[in-house]
Amino acid sequence: MEFNEIYNDFYAKTYFGTEQKIKEDLITSKAESRSFTSILNEINKKLENKINANEIIADEKLLYLDQVFQNNLSEYSENSIELSLKNHVYPEFLKLNQVGFLTNYSFDKFLFFLGTIKALKKVANLFSNNSRLFEMMFILNDFKGFELAEYPMILDNTPLFKKLHTRLYPQQKSKAETKKNQTSTSDIDPIFTLLNNDEKIILLHIVYNTYFKDNLIDKKPKIDLTEFARIIYLTKESIDVNIFDKNYASRTFYKKLNEGIIYSDSLDKRSNLITSLLEKIEILNLNSIKGLIDSQKTTTIKKNKK
Length: 306
Description:
mainly alpha; 15 helices; globular
């Protein structure tokens, strides 16, 4: 069996197995009359514990191989997992073996831990990003459409979200349709949906670090009140309810907000995010922010996590 087949097998088993377990936990918790916030926090904590229990987290050599894998995915336009494992990770694994490291590991064993942790991180990210969708399922006690999926659009615009939201708030639909008829020529909605969730969080991170964080910049620049209000409006939907939780620092949203662009391990993803954000900021005419993002582009993308 090829390396990528082994990796994909472990990834899929972990991903879909964890997805099913989350669904079962939500259904059980609803039957027990628990609150959504309670089960949300519990699931997030379980996912965090599973990730931290992975041997890659505890062993710096395994962590190094993980970084080699992640950093080389962007080198290929197709079959990136297969080629990164074959051309980069496996040779590094052999080098470590030859000098006495990881001698109790087969490469298949490493692929088990790699596929497992990548799947768990993906599950944790999607569960956090789509929690508002799952909350509506929970309130309605309808989990037929439950899945951990990436949507090609803002969550609020997905057919499933709209369907559940209409069932939960039928009167709001009527008001929204009336407002739509009255403001059909408005350009507010297209602008609001321009940024994706990650871009909104990165924008908040940059604004906070530039204008509010102490001791970061000797002479802090000024921001126009109107521009600041626009940023708040554009990013408001990215704020996760978990920010009110006492363990907020362990939540994915807070980690993204705190680390900004370096939350992603992939240099290619960092570059694409910054490039996309710059293009959209220019469309939004946020001129002072555009200069800040542009000036940080090179150093921020290459900066490592602490």
